[in-house]
Amino acid sequence: MKIKITSIIVLIILAIVSLIYLFPIYWTLVTALKNSLQIFTYPPIFFPTKITLSNFYTPGNVFGAVSQTAVGSIPWMIDSTIVAIIATLLSTILIAAPAAYSLVRYIKSIWFGRLILFMTMIPEAVFVVPFFLIVAKINLLNTWWGLIIVYISFTAPFATWLLMGFFNDIPKSVEEAAQIDGLSPFQIFYKISLRLVTPGIIAALVLNFISCWNELLYALVITYSPFPSGAQTVPIFLTSFIIVEKSFAWGGLAAAGIFTMLPTIILGIFAQKYLARGLTMGAVKG
Amino acid sequence: MRMNRKYKIGLLFALPIIIYFLIFFLYPLVSLVQNAFTNSAGTFTLANFNYMLRDRILKISLENTAYYFFGSVALQYSVGFWVALILYNYTGRLTSVFRTIILLPLMISPVVIGLMWMLLYNVNYGSIDYLIRIIGLPPVNWLGNMSIALISLIIANTWEYSPFAFLIIYAGLQMVPQQLYEAASVDGLSRFQVFRYITIPSIRASMIVAFLLNSIGVLKGFDLVYVLTNGGPGYSTYILSFYEYVVAFSYFEKNYASAIAILYLLIIGAFVFVMLKFTAVEEYLGLRKIKE
Fold first, then answer.
1. What domains appear along chain A, each with residue ranges and CATH number?
2. I need a surface site. Which of A54, B55, B109, B118 has the fewest CB within 10 A?
3. Which residue numbers in chain A have pLDDT < 50?
4. What is the CATH number of the domain that holds B177?
5. Can you list the alpha helix ranges (DSSP code H) found in chain A?
């Protein structure tokens, strides 16, 4: 009897906890689905009976200037996707995979490992000035490539760190057998070891994709123009939308938030089993 | 001779990341030092560091960063810890549903999270104040009150990152061998004794890793401040990353901003150093395995 009561209490607490984690998302969703009369009312409406999708495509009107809409964010989403895919692929395949392999199998230097660990912990704000200066110097401000280069700064060490754990898990006997068969070190790397860490590669790609997609500070300074520059990503779209519409088109803002968070939420739920190992820098074996 | 060849192959594999270090670590580091020790005309000076000592806003930003750091880490960590413990003690069928719900904030962009909390915190039409008024408390100006804005940021930050501590500690709990609990019940340990002498020591590694990564996450923070308060009202939510950004890209003082960046890097470095020196975090993260 006592056990039953405790398990009911646990269930109730978990339900409340879930409610707390869900509520901000729920509140944004219902705000996106209300018309402005329903939004600006007191007491607030928690369960709207009449819902509308117009917030997703109807621009707000601020002092006669037509504002953005959620659906209008699609060009920014395309920029985000292209930048994130290229930066993620380049850093994971070209830099991180061979580096992690070398570190685990050849160089075996703890100091090298520490340096990579430290690189993943440096805040973006620390190097933002030098990165801005160099991107300006090579004339890549407001371009995809400007952002891609800077994003490699944080995607490469993260992927290296993550892959080190995966390479470590490969039994050495597999590689020794391949060596006896006469494969060169490079053949062993890319024909055998690289294939064996496919789950790690996927985890690194997915997590780096999400962090590039969501990155704000570098995007802010590299693509700083007040007008769409052809390289601005979703966080820039959202922040400029928020600055303009802060006190007005809440429905539109909420709709934009919901609309733009869908890709990463879907990706995140799909890749949930990699999330644990990746986010915890390999401390959790997924 | 053989060793030598092996090392050469290793260097070849590591060549891309060595180039990476030159571009993304050495170059910016040299550039920071160079900028921090010169004025805008390029002549050597210590003025940037001298100014730091009298910069009132820097002092405020450092204090805010300290409050933000201790408040956020303490809250995130304890929330994550208890939620993990509660979910671990739940034996029903909904485990994976609860887990997915709790992890949702980690999949949402910080900018969108800022947007969400902006809607929640609104004084007149937000839902948090409505709930507060139902209990009978006066409405709170969450983002417009100088003494409350930083607390509001900490709350939003806790919602955003407590799932992180939860994730690590929950995984640690799942790896505790069941035999330990069985042995404890044979020995007739009380619930508290089991918690104190079995659970806690078994998840020590997860607890330390969670603390390190949560702390680094908070120290890196920028997005929430930028979206929710933009440093205001006044300077009440200026934190180090935000102040550096303002100095560099609103005042266009790249030299002084570089000096602040060096201070920032030293703070992070000191924190990581202390963690590596006084805890076994390297081992928990698998760094020692490299040598094997």
1. 2-52 (no CATH), 72-279 (1.10.3720.10)
2. A54
3. 286
4. 1.10.3720.10
5. 2-33, 36-39, 74-89, 97-102, 110-121, 124-137, 144-169, 172-180, 185-187, 194-196, 198-214, 217-222, 234-245, 250-270, 272-279
